[in-house]
Each structure stands twice: as structure tokens, then as C-alpha cells.
Amino acid sequence: MNDTVLLSLAADLAHRAGATILAVRERGFDVRAKSDASPVTAADHAAEALILEGLRNAAPDIPVIAEEEVAAGKITAPGPVFWLVDPLDGTREFSAGHDEFTVHIGLVRDGRAVLGVVGVPALGEMFGGIVGRGAWKRTTAGERPIRARVPPENGLVVVASRYHANDARLDSFLAGRKIASVSNIGSGLKFCRVAEGVADLYPRFGRTMEWDTAGPQAILEAAGGTVLDLAGQPLAYGKPGWENPAFICAGRSDEA
């Protein structure tokens, strides 16, 4: 399969997983705590099962690393190419009745996220992209290309985590910068808002895992933005333990 076909596969599965999540929300659900104290619901498990079946049936030669399988102790060894799946990013948002939860599917090749999708089922949005070939946003009105923007002269529009809103590291990082606004929202939707050019900066100092970021990073980079660690290096994948360092998502620095 080429990357266009793989992206189409991921988008279809993310859409179907989103419908599954909304169905669980409609009928009601319980919230349990995993060993790391993070929440999990029936929606997480049902969406992940659907995505895993679809990826493994369609592309059996590409390993899949998925959040809930890892949490259950099932560790799939990555290869030079592998999928990273977060079936429901923003479980706390979902459990609290907010709409800012997402479905992430990303493909990693040689340590870099190369394509990905992010579904936003409650908002009827889907984002996708292939690095070097562009990104798009899909709604009921259709699909259109998206492009990260150069920050406007009136200041940066910053998006930050709702659950890390009081992180002193964020205030320190933003000090001295011209800021137009700061809003706190959940899930990987923050990457997508930078990718589509309605926000300029997303600094993340709290804990994230590779399945949280692979799909969104590919979209943002496909849209012309960057995802860099605090040393200025691109966020890489296949790390022991799957945990990311702190990172900064940004739009374009110039018109190139």
C-alpha cells in the first residue's frame, strides 16, 4: 500500500471509531482508572478494537502499537514502519461531557511520524495529512486543504492543555512573547487548531505518550508547522517506554 491508501484506511477507521464512541456516549458508560490513574471507558476499548482489526486485516505486515493494549501489558514490537493508535484521546473530556475528544492514528517510518489522522467525532471534524504532501480538514461541508499560518502582528494565539492550565512552566515560556490570547482545550485537537491556522503555538510540558502525538504531529508538519522538543529537535518515535519529552508545536515561521 502507498501512503495515500494508508491515509484513506486510517481516515475510514477513525471515522468508524468516532461513531462507536458517540454510540457509547449515547447509551452511557462507567469510568475506570488504569494502573497509571488515567481514566478509561468502554468507548476507549471499543474504538481501539475496531481500529486494530481494521489495520491488522488491511496491512498485516505493519505492526500496531495501541494505548489500551500497552496498558493491558500487550507490547507489540515496532518495526521500521509501525502504527501508533490512541483510540480516544481526551478520555477526561469525554467523561466530563465535553466535545474535545479525538481519535488518533499515525504512521511512523524510520522514527518519524509521516502520516496521520485525527477524528473529532462530537464536532463532526476530521483532519489528515501526509508530511511533504499537505494536510486537509473534512467536515459535513466537504474537504479542504489546511495550512499553518505565520503568526499575526497582533500576537500569538496560544492553545494549552485544560488539565495543565496552571503549569508555571507555561507562564515562563510565554513570558516576553507578544500574546493575543491563551485558551485551554483538551486532546490532540490543539495540534489541529495550529495546523489549520486558527492558533499559532501549543507548548506542552506535561506528560504525553507517542500514541498521543504521532497522528497529530504528522498533520501539523504536513500543514507546514513544526513539533520540536526543547532542544529544537523533531519529536521522534519508537523510544523505550513510549514517553515523549516536553515539546512545542508551532505554525510557520515565514511564508516559505
Sum this structure up briefly:
With 256 residues, this protein is of the alpha+beta class.
Report on this model:
By secondary structure, the chain is α+β, with helices and mostly antiparallel strands. The protein folds into two domains: 3-146, Fructose-1,6-Bisphosphatase, subunit A, domain 1 (Fructose-1,6-Bisphosphatase, Chain A, domain 1, 2-Layer Sandwich), CATH 3.30.540; 156-250, 3-Layer(aba) Sandwich (D-Maltodextrin-Binding Protein, domain 2). Helix content is 31%, strand content 30%. A seven-stranded mixed sheet has the order 3-4-5-6-7-8-9, with helices on both faces. A three-stranded antiparallel sheet has the order 12-14-13, with helices on one face. The two termini are 31 Å apart. The mean pLDDT is 92.
Percent in helix: 25-40%
| Termini separation | 31 Å
At the fourth CATH level, what is the homologous superfamily of the largest domain? Fructose-1,6-Bisphosphatase, subunit A, domain 1
Would you identify the regions where 5 or more consecutive residues have pLDDT less than 50? none
Instruction: Encode the helix/strand succession as letters.
Output: HEEHEHEHEEEEEEHEHEHEE
Query: What is the radius of gyration computed over CA atoms, rounded to a whole number of angstroms?
Result: 17 Å
Overall tally of domains: 2
Q: Could you name the CATH topology of the largest domain?
A: Fructose-1,6-Bisphosphatase, Chain A, domain 1
Strand order of the largest sheet: 3-4-5-6-7-8-9
Proportion of strand residues: 25-35%
| Largest sheet: number of strands, sense, barrel closure | 7 strands, mixed
Instruction: Give the class-level CATH name of the largest domain.
Output: Alpha Beta
What is the architecture of the largest domain at the second tier of CATH? 2-Layer Sandwich
Helix run count: 7
Instruction: Write down the overall mean pLDDT.
Output: 92
Shape: globular
